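Subject: complex prediction, re-run

Hi both,

The earlier run crashed halfway through, so I resubmitted it with identical inputs.
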Amino acid sequence: MNQCPVHFIQHGKLVRKQSRKLRVGDIVMVKEDETFPCDLIFLSSNRGDGTCHVTTASLDGESSHKTHYAVQDTKGFHTEEDIGGLHATIECEQPQPDLYKFVGRINVYSDLNDPVVRPLGSENLLLRGATLKNTEKIFGVAIYTGMETKMALNYQSKSQKRSAVEKSMNAFLIVYLCILISKALINTVLKYVWQSEPFRDEPWYNQKTESERQRNLFLRAFTDFLAFMVLFNYIIPVSMYVTVEMQKFLGSYFITWDEDMFDEETGEGPLVNTSDLNEELGQVEYIFTDKTGTLTENNMEFKECCIEGHVYVPHVICNGQVLPESSGIDMIDSSPSVNGREREELFFRALCLCHTVQVKDNDSVDGPRKSPDGGASCVYISSSPDEVALVEGVQRLGFTYLRLKDNYMELLNRENHVERFELLEILSFDSVRRRMSVIVKSATGEIYLFCKGADSSIFPRVIEGKVDQIRARVERNAVEGLRTLCVAYKRLIQEEYEGICKLLQAAKVALQDREKKLAEAYEQIEKDLILLGATAVEDRLQEKAADTIEALQKAGIKVWVLTGDKMETAAATCYACKLFRRNTQLLELTTKRIEEQSLHDVLFELSKTVLRHSGSLTRDNFSGLSADMQDYGLIIDGAALSLIMKPREDGSSSNYRELFLEICRSCSAVLCCRMAPLQKAQIVKLIKFSKEHPITLAVGDGANDVSMILEAHVGIGVIGKEGRQAARNSDYAIPKFKHLKKMLLVHGHFYYIRISELVQYFFYKNVCFIFPQFLYQFFCGFSQQTLYDTAYLTLYNISFTSLPILLYSLMEQHIGIDVLKRDPTLYRDVAKNALLRWRVFIYWTLLGLFDALVFFFGAYFMFENTTVTSNGQIFGNWTFGTLVFTVMVFTVTLKLALDTHYWTWINHFVIWGSLLFYVVFSLLWGGVIWPFLNYQRMYYVFIQMLSSGPAWLAIVLLVTISLLPDVLKKVLCRQLWPTATERVQRGVKHKAPVQAAQSSDGPLLKDLLRQPRRS
Amino acid sequence: MTWSATARGAHQPDNTAFTQQRLPAWQPLLSASIALPLFFCAGLAFIGLGLGLYYSSNGIKELEYDYTGDSGTGNCSVCAAAGQGRAPPPPCSCAWYFSLPELFQGPVYLYYELTNFYQNNRRYSVSRDDAQLSGLPSALRHPVNECAPYQLSAAGLPIAPCGAIANSLFNDSFSLWHQRLPGGLYVEVPLDRSGIAWWTDYHVKFRNPPLVNGSLALAFQGTAPPPNWRRPVYELSPDPNNTGFINQDFVVWMRTAALPTFRKLYARIRQGNYSAGLPRGAYRVNITYNYPVRAFGGHKLLIFSSISWMGGKNPFLGIAYLVVGSLCILTGFVMLIVYIRYQDQDDDYEE
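This time it finished cleanly. Structure:
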C-alpha cells in the first residue's frame, strides 16, 4: 500500500513517486477513479466551477457522489505550472478522527497584494480512501498523511483475539494447577508426617546413602515437593494445547472447503485468516452488520410506481441485470381512462423533472449505472442514488431525461419527441422537510410545481387526488422494505409564480436566519398540492439476506445494523431484511428528538416505554418473535450516540450508558445510522464490555467497517465490491452475507461442541490418568513411586488416547448439517458457553475422579493378599500399574465412543485402532528385552497379566463400573430433561423417512414431527 | 496461527464427502429404549458371572498362621525376642503345629506374607541392576549407582547382586511335616521349590554370568555378597540350576510387590501322596526364623492355599460382579419407571 504510485507536482513538473514518500505540504494530482492517497485540501479541479465529486464508499459506506469545493482563490490554477507557482500557507487543527469535521485556514500570498485568508471547512477536504468520480483530475495539497489521516485514525489497532473457550480453558487450567500444587503439598506434608517414625523413614532393608542422610531437611522437603510436582504434572494437559491448535488449524479447512459458501458468481470462497476463533462462531450473541454492500447489494432499483391507485411495474431485473427489451409497462390494473392517461404522463414528467440528477455523457463503460438502452449511453449522477433509480425507472417507462442545458430541462417522451421545460426554481431537499420541489415552465407556457418527498411530508399538503388508495399502496411498499416517495404537483398561474419568486428572493438575500426564512418560504410554497402517485425504489438486498437475518434472530442472536447512511434509507433496508417487522414499534433516539427534548428525558421516556413490557418479556424461545408480543426497534444516530458516550462533568458518566444499554437489551433490533467508523467500534465495545460480556460479531465489507471488525470478538469481512480492506483485516471472510448463516449455525455450532468436548475430555482423561498415581502414594510410603511404566506415562497422551479425540473434534456432528440449518433455535443450546460452564466442568472432573477411584481400588482389591493366576505365581507392582492403565485406556477411549454421535469409518478406525495399538504396543514392549533400557521391569508383565482370567474379568468389570454413571446420566437426562438438541436427535432417529422426504427449506422439523406422533 | 487459503485461488472447492462433512456415518443414540435392555442384559450376565466367581472363590481353602512371634503367640516369640535389636539376628528355629480334620483339597501352595514392608518404595524398588542380573559381566563388576548404598562393599568390591532389594532377600525357610496317625512319626512333605517364579524371569530375564572354568564361584570372583547375606549368591542352592541369580527364591523376591502387604510364593505341594492335597492329620511346619520384621512393625505369615482357575481366594471379584449386576437391574427398573412415566408426559408435551 505504501508503494502505489502518486503524482506529485515538484517545481511545476509532474513526478511519479511512491506514496510512502508523501509529505505534508506536497501537492498531489489525482485522476478520475483514483483514490486519494492522503487527506488533501482541494486546490483546483479541471471543472470550471472548482468542484469535484467523490464517493466515500470505503469510508462511511455511502456510495453516493458528494460534491467538494476547491478553495476560492486557487481554483483557477489548472496546470502544473500554475500550481507550482502557488505560494500559500495552511493552518489546520490537529488530526482528529471525525470524518465530517475540519477547521483550518489558508493564507494565499500573491506578489502584488496582501495575503488572502480563507477559512477551510470539511467541504474543502478530500479524505484519504475516498475516490474521485466524474472529475478528470484535481490538485490538492497534502495536510494529513499516513497514520494521521482521518481514515487511519479511524482504524483500530489489530489486537490478539482470544475465544471464550480459550478463556474457560485457561480458567480450568488454573484450577488444575491449584489441584496439582495442593496434591504435591499434601503428599509432601504427609510424607514427613508419616516418616516421623524412623523405622519408616529408613527401615533396615532400605538404608539411605551417607550423602542423603546429610542433606538439609528443608532442602529434602523441597526436592520432594518438586518430585511430586513432576510425578503429577501430567494432570496439566500440555498435549491439550497442541491438540487444540491442531484441531483449530485442520478444522478451519472445513470452512474453506465448504461448497455452500462458495460464490459461483465471483469465484470466491470463504477465507480463514485466523483459526483461533472457530468455536467463537458458535457463541455469537450480537451481530453488528454494516448495511451498504453487506446487507444490500448497494444497487438501487426502481420497483414500481402507483399512479392514482394504478400500479405500474417496469419490466424488471433478471439476476440483477435489466433486460434490454424491457421498454414496455406491465400494468397490473386495468387500463386507465383518458383523463388517467394525462395524469400518468404528468406523473412521468414530474419524475423526469423533479430531481437534481446530472447527466454525464460517457461512451466508456463506467460503473453500474449505465442507462438501459445502450444507444443513448448516458450516465446519471446524483448525490442521492434514489433519484438515479427513479430517473432510470422512468426511462424504462418511456420518458428519458436527456440533460439540463441553458436552464432548460430536456426530456424524450414516449413518442420520441424532445420536450423542453424551463427550470425556474429548485426548492432543494433537506432532511427536516423531507421533500424537494422544482418549478418549471413547459413549452406551452404553463408553470408547474412538482414536489417529491416522503409520504409523511406530502400527504398533509395534498388537497386533491386519490390519497387513500395511494396511501395504502405506500404503506404496503414500506412494509416490504421499499423506499417510497410521493409525487404531487400544482399548476401555478403567472401571478402566483411571481409571488413565489419574490418570497424566495427575499429569503435568499436575507442576512440573518436565512435558513429559517427559506424554510418558511418553502412551507408557504409547497401547499395545496394535487397528489399524483407514489414510487417505490428498492435497494436490492443481498440474496437471502432477510432469510439469514430471520434465522440468526431465531438462533437468539441480536442483530444490529450500523451504517454511515441516512436514517430513512437505513430504516427502509431494515424493513426489507425483516429486521424490523410490521408490528415493530420504532423508538427513535436521534439528534432531532434530542434537540426537542433533553437527552435525559428522551432516554428515560424510552426506557419507560420499553420496560413496561419487560414484565412479560421472558427470555424464552421465540419471545422476540411471537406476533402478540410487542416488539421494539431502536434507531439511534451517531450524534446522539456520541452524546450518550460522552462522559459528563458530574461524574455520572456511566448513567446514560447503562440506561442506553438497558433500552438496547429490550429491543429486538437496533439500527445505528450516521456512524463514523470509530463510532461503530465504540458501539461494539460498549456491548462487548457490558455486564453480561456477550460475544460480538461484526460483519462488513468496506474500509469503514475495519475498526469494528477488529473490535468485535469475531470480525467477518464480506468480500465485496469496495475493495478487500475488510476481508484482509477480518478473521474470516465470506463472499456473501447469506453465508453467515451456515458459518454460524453449522460451522460455529460444530466447532463449539467439538472443542468443548475436546477441552473437557482432556481434563477428564488426565484426571483419570494421574489421580491413581496420587492414591498410590498412600500405599508406597509417599515415595514418588510411579504407578505406570515410563513408556506408558509418555505415550498415554501422545498416542494411546490422542487420535480418537482429535478425530472426534474434527468429525463430530451431533446433529446433521441440514437439521442445524433448518432449525436455528438449536443454536441457543450452546449459547453462553453452555458446554464449558463450571457445572459441566465439575461434572467431568468428578467423573474423572470417580473413574480413577474405580481403577485404583478395583485393582487394589484384586491384588490384595492373593494370587490371581492359576499357577499360583504372584504379580508385582508393575502388573498392578499395568492393570490400572489398561482399564484406564479402555475406559477413557470407550467414554469417547459413548460421546461420539457420528461414526464414520474414520472414527471406527481411530477408536478401535488406538485400542488395538495399545494392546499391540504393550505386547511388544513387554515381549522383548530392550537392549537400550537399563531396566527390564515391564518384561512379560502385560502378557502375564493377560494370562490371568480374573484380570480379564476385572478389566470388564472396572470398565463397566466406570462407564455406568455416565451412561446413566446420559439416559436419564435425555429422558427427563432433554435439550432441544436431544429432542431433535430423537426426532431424526424416529422419523428418518419423514426427514428424507423433506427439502432443506421446509418447515421446522419440530412442527413436522408432532403430526405423525399423534396418530 | 494465521494463514490464508487465498492460494487456492478461484477454484471451486473439492466436492468430496469428506470436505463437505457428509461422510456416511452411523449415528447411534443412547436412548432409554436401547439402554434399558442393555442394562437388564448386562445386569443378568453380571449376576450370573458374580455367582460363579463367588462360589468359585468360596471353594478355595486358606490356612494362615502369623509366626512373627509377638509375645505369647506360639513358640516363635522366643526367636523374635532373641533377634530383637540384633542385626543380623542369630539363627533360630521354631515350629507351627496344626491339624487338618479333612483333606485340604490340592493343589496346595505355600505362601509367606509380609506386612508393612514397602517393597514399592521408590528408593527401594529402583535399587537393583537388571543388567547385572541378566548376567552381563561388565555390569557384574560395575553395578549401577541406583544400588547405593548397596553398590560397593566396605572393601570397595562390587556387590553382586547389588541393591537394597537383593540385600533384603527373605531368608526364612520352612519345611512341612505330616503326622499321619496321632502320636506317629512326622514325615516330611515334599515341597516343590521350582516353578515358583515366572517362567520368563527364570529362563530369560535372570541369567548367571558366564562360567569361568566351569565354575560359577569363579565367575563371581571379585564381587562381594550383599552385606546382609550369610552366603554368597552362588551358594544359594546346591542345585546348579537354582543358584546364583537364577535361584527361584531370589527371582521371586526380586519381583517387587505392589502393596506394603504382600504374599510371595514359597513352594508348591504336588508330589507323591500329596498331589491331591494335604490329607487329614497333624502337621508341623519347621520355621528357620531369620528375617527381622518387628523393627519396622511388620508381620510374617505362612499361608497354605489351594488354587482354582481364578487363582487364590478372592471374594472381591465375585461380590463386585454381584453388586454391579444388581445395580444394573435396579437402575434398569428405575429407568423403566421413568421411561414409562415420561412417555406420558412426552405425549402431553407434544400435543
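The first helix of chain B runs from residue 32 to 58.

- K.
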